[in-house]
Write a structure and sequence with these properties.
Layout lengths: L6 H15 L7 H17 L4 E6 L7 H4 L3 E7 L2 H10 L4 E4 L12 E7 L8 H11 E12 L1 H7 L16 H8 L3 E11 L4 H6 L2 H11 L2 H8 L3 E10 L1
Parallel strand pairs: 1-2, 1-4, 2-3, 4-5
Antiparallel strand pairs: 5-7, 6-7
InterPro entries: Methyltransf_11 (IPR013216), SAM-dependent_MTases_sf (IPR029063)
Keywords: Methyltransferase, S-adenosyl-L-methionine, Transferase
EC number: 2.1.1.-
Length: about 240
């Protein structure tokens, strides 16, 4: 198929390549921190019988950890990557395709997890509405997305690749998007990162190593509370 004339095929081609070149080789600290937060939220629910849907699961790297809490379905546009995920994570169910067009059972899920997916969908409000429709009453969305302020002001980021959609949100925009269908219980940033300007110095190992020796992780936590993290984390309950 000519991907140039088919935007969805172009996206699928991009994410198959990106996942095989990146996620199948390693999972970076930013993603591991997102997973740490999500697993903490799941632990607080205190259940092991949850029905969990991970949207944009990529290689399925998080699914083995999600399986501790119940049944897991992972979905992603990257069909070739999911073919390999099925053999690596036999305990999870994987569904390849465009999330906005796939037919999942409405009101069937206790938790939907979406890590760095929101900025790559064409209609973000429709995405949030579909997630809400899939959740049970009082079900939870556990979401991570790029922090627009930090990426635009403090980081040099490569332009989108062919087929890669990109629309970052700031904290206010994310809250406004979610509040139509959810009660936002937590919204904060994690993983301070910068490669330009004064924030590059503030986040540098040269500065952070001696500061961490003096105050432990409190300096890192302060930067996260000030909204200086690469990632915005949102815990939202369906209303």
């Amino acid at each position: 198929m000519d991907t140039d004339s088919d935007p969805l095929a172009q996206q699928r081609h991009f994410w198959n390549g990106w996942n095989s070149e990146n996620r199948e080789r390693s999972v970076q600290d930013v993603s591991l921190r997102q997973a740490e937060v999500v697993l903490g939220w799941l632990e607080r629910l205190g259940r092991r019988d949850l029905n969990i849907l991970e949207v944009g699961c990529g290689t399925g790297w998080l699914c083995p950890k999600l399986l501790r809490y119940g049944r897991v379905t992972g979905t992603d546009l990257s069909d070739e990557v999911l073919d390999r995920a099925r053999s690596r994570v036999p305990g999870a169910r994987f569904v390849a395709g465009d999330f906005m067009k796939l037919a999942f059972d409405g009101g069937a899920y206790d938790v939907v997890v979406a890590l760095e997916v929101l900025s790559h969908v064409a209609d973000q409000q429709a995405f949030a509405e579909k997630v809400a429709g899939l959740l049970k009453p009082d079900g939870y969305l556990m979401l991570a997305t790029q922090n627009r302020v930090v990426l635009e002001r403090f980081n040099r980021v490569l332009p989108p690749g062919p087929g890669q959609l990109r629309r970052w949100l700031d904290r206010r925009e994310l809250a406004g998007l979610l509040e139509r269908d959810f009660a936002v219980k937590e919204l904060f940033s994690v993983s301070p990162r910068a490669n330009k300007g004064v924030m590059r110095l503030i986040n540098s190992r040269t500065l952070n190593r001696p500061v961490r020796l003096l105050v432990g992780d409190r300096f890192e936590s302060l930067k996260e509370r000030l909204g200086l993290g690469w990632t915005l984390m949102a815990l939202a309950r369906k209303t």
